[in-house]
Specification:
The longest helix has 20 residues, at 376-395. The protein is an alpha/beta fold and 407 residues long. Strand 3 (123-128), helix 7 and strand 4 form a beta-alpha-beta unit. It is globular, with a radius of gyration of 22 Å. It has 15 helices and 12 strands. The protein binds pyridoxal-5'-phosphate (PLP). Pyridoxal-5'-phosphate binds at residues 44, 105-107, 131, 176, 180, 214, 216, 242, 244, 250, 255.
């Protein structure tokens, strides 16, 4: 008898994140993640206590100053003004408060943006490897995911692939910079060329193609490299941001969408975003986080420390024989897996208490992802395990794995 799911609609959504779900629920990491002596490099979660200023900011903000302190909040005028000022300084675009929609993290921003500017059946293009949860949001909105590869050597956008993927139904192109998991920051030349390509295609189609710029890591940039937002190059850009990365508090949901003042249909897009936020379950950040925002804006994880962790690991891994490039931003490293089967190599590392994310889960088989949010002690503890594992991998092929053991 065919095993039909009781809830086919959500079952179909589950299929879009099957490998991630299996990794999270049924893998050596899922079974051992709370053991005290492991080194956990899987996800961008904190492995140290929160920034002291963070807790102070929330404590101050929790004390009500008027009867409306905990009333329904949407995109509060004060929050929008704080974000606009921050963006003027960080990305150099003259945003005003009315250009900002406050959202439940970057996730809420992406979900609201996708719903706001599309009709069912529209196509959404994005590059592989992607953030692994684009697809579930695209499918949930009745849209069609269209995947193209990044340039495999430079990790830059592949213009020929994007141009070939555009059809009259293309409505959105998602670009993630700085890019998870490659750490690539797209340079101005790339963004200029992309803007020209999208302008041409929109004109040809007689319908705007929106660029959804997913940039939650735009403040996590390492020495010497400058971040450029696609919003400065293409007016039909929706800039999606999350505070969860720079504050390393992903369980606290606050972020925003920003529309450049040059966007032609800005007021209608903003109105559509607001309706999408309401219809999808009130995707506005909680009152407390909005009250604390002026203080939160001034805080950041220690980026030079993160850069030192990147350098420590890149040097050590290369000495061991790993093939790993130097990311320009984000908090990820993406070494090549010594075995083509990245799941098998991930399990080998797990034998030494070292947990990383198999590349297959993020649609980049043959690699694995390391999150540098692991603390210094974990890094030092893990290095001998990385060394033994690559030594073993070079000597022998992976044992054949059963389906149940995969990720
Ligand atoms: N986009 C990218 C590329 C990400 O890596 C993440 C989180 O990992 C998000 C969006 C979502 O961010 P948040 O969970 O803070 O909303």
């Amino acid at each position: 008898m065919v095993n039909r799911p009781l809830f086919p609609r959500t079952a179909a959504l589950g299929n879009t994140m099957r490998l991630l779900g299996t990794f999270m629920n049924d893998s050596p990491w899922a079974r051992r993640r709370f053991e005290p002596d492991i080194a956990d490099f899987t996800f961008g979660n904190p492995h140290e206590m929160a920034l002291p200023g963070y807790v102070d900011a929330l404590q101050r903000a929790v004390v009500p100053r008027d009867k409306d302190w905990f009333a329904y909040k949407d995109s509060e005028p004060e929050s929008r003004a704080i974000v606009a000022a921050s963006l003027r300084a960080w990305v150099g675009i003259p945003f005003e408060a009315e250009d900002i929609a406050m959202t439940t993290g970057g996730f809420g921003a992406l979900a609201a943006a996708l719903k706001a500017v599309t009709e069912p059946g529209d196509e959404v293009i994005y590059s592989l490897p992607p953030w692994f949860l684009y697809e579930i949001m695209i499918v949930d909105n009745g849209l069609v995911p269209v995947k193209v590869r990044l340039n495999p050597v430079s990790f830059d956008l592949d213009f020929d692939a994007i141009a070939a993927a555009i059809t009259p139904r293309t409505r959105v192109l998602i670009v993630n910079t700085p890019h998870n998991p490659t750490g690539k920051i797209y340079p101005p030349e790339t963004l200029t060329r992309l803007a020209a390509l999208l302008d041409d295609a929109s004109r040809r189609n007689g319908r705007t193609i929106y660029l959804l710029s997913d940039e939650p890591y735009n403040r996590i940039v390492f020495g010497g490299v400058r971040f450029h937002s696609p919003a400065a190059f293409y007016p039909n850009t929706l800039l999606a941001y999350s505070y969860g990365k720079v504050l390393l508090t992903p369980g606290q949901r606050i972020g925003y969408l920003a529309l450049p003042p040059t966007m032609p249909d800005r007021d209608q897009v903003m109105q559509s975003i607001r309706l999408a936020q309401i219809a999808n379950g009130y995707l506005f950040p909680n009152a407390l986080l909005q009250h604390a925002l002026a203080d939160l804006e001034t805080l950041s994880i220690d980026i030079p420390h993160l850069e030192r962790k990147r350098d420590r690991m890149v040097v050590a891994l290369r000495e061991m024989g790993y093939n790993v490039h130097v990311p320009e931003g984000t908090f990820y490293l993406l070494p090549r897996s010594p075995w083509e089967d990245d799941g098998a190599f991930t399990e080998l590392l797990a034998e030494y208490g070292v947990f990383v994310l198999p590349g297959s889960v993020a649609e980049i088989p043959g690699y694995f992802r390391i999150s540098l949010t692991a603390n210094d002690a974990m890094i030092e503890r893990a290095l001998p395990g990385f060394a033994v594992a690559i030594g073993r991998a070079k000597k022998s092929a992976p044992a054949t794995r059963t389906a149940a053991s995969i990720r």
